[in-house]
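User: Teach me something about this protein's shape.
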Amino acid sequence: MLRVGLVGVGFMGWIHYLAYQKAKGVKLAAVCTRDRTRLSGDWRGIQGNFGPPGEAVDLSEVAKYSALPALLADKSIDLVDLCLPPHLHAEATIAALKAGKHVFVEKPMGLTAAECDKMVAAAKKAKRQVLVGHVLPFLPEYAFAWKAIESGKYGKVLGGHFKRVISDPSWLKDFFNPDKVGGPLVDLHVHDAHFIRLVFGMPQAVTSQGRLRGGVVEYCVSQFQFKNKSLVVSSASGVVNQQGRSFTHGFEIHLEKATLYFDLAVLAGGTLQITPLTLLDSKGHAEQPKLPAVDPMLAAFDYEIQEVARSIASKKPSALLGGDLARDAIVLCHKQTEAVKSGKIVRI
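Assistant: First, the predicted structure itself:
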């Protein structure tokens, strides 16, 4: 049984908590937060942009800590799940690894490539795994696309376009602070940077055109260049300052024998505007593949936790959640920032 210590009881901590209630071979054994109310089990103040609101939870059989060092001293904990603000990820991860724990840290892995390198090096030195919460490959549409690409059923992947745009998140403190949250690329586009790196490998260069807010990119469109010159891969991501569409994401992926496309937008009032995952094959057919009949967001975190448990139990690094992959996603985010600021092709 994998015993987990959850550090940070905010929205993502709540979502992870729900996933642990359904995970097999995994037990939530401890929680750590400085918030005395939440340490008592009153999580009713938690709210987010998906899933149920927080509620009162029973922590009577869970160890409770108000500081990370105390949790790390608990020898019964195998895995530390870090749901802390991004600027605390590197320090907390390295401390947990030095304490002999495996680490599952929410995205973004770190705010800089240097931080991520230190985290990867610490995991290797401790002979423990660092896994990063990139949930996108577990969302039904993205999971279907990844499996279709991996299977080779529709031939080689030729390229794709990926988008992820939100309205101005004025309620999120420090969102545009590069030293706290990181801005739209590090916090938002990192999802697609991770998926692009997973599917196509590491690009050799990038060109990006965009708008800046302070020292970070507010919105940009990027074209990635690969050793294989026939790959055509691009992305559009960031903040657009019209509040009538709080969120949109989607993709169009080209394979030799099929095209996959999907689009979802959350409009004012919570209305969903959806183009379901659609497959266009080389024979002229158009179909909408059947996806699991589950809540797509919550189920994705369930699958993600299962992948964490599998990776640690098997002692085989995850192909989807590994630290090296997450570090490369951060590198891609910063290279795009460099490209926007310089107006030049940036080597990776």
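Now, about its shape. Residues 2-134+301-321 form a domain with the Rossmann fold fold (CATH 3.40.50.720). The chain has a mean pLDDT of 95. If you'd like, I can walk through any region in more detail.
User: That's plenty for now, thanks!
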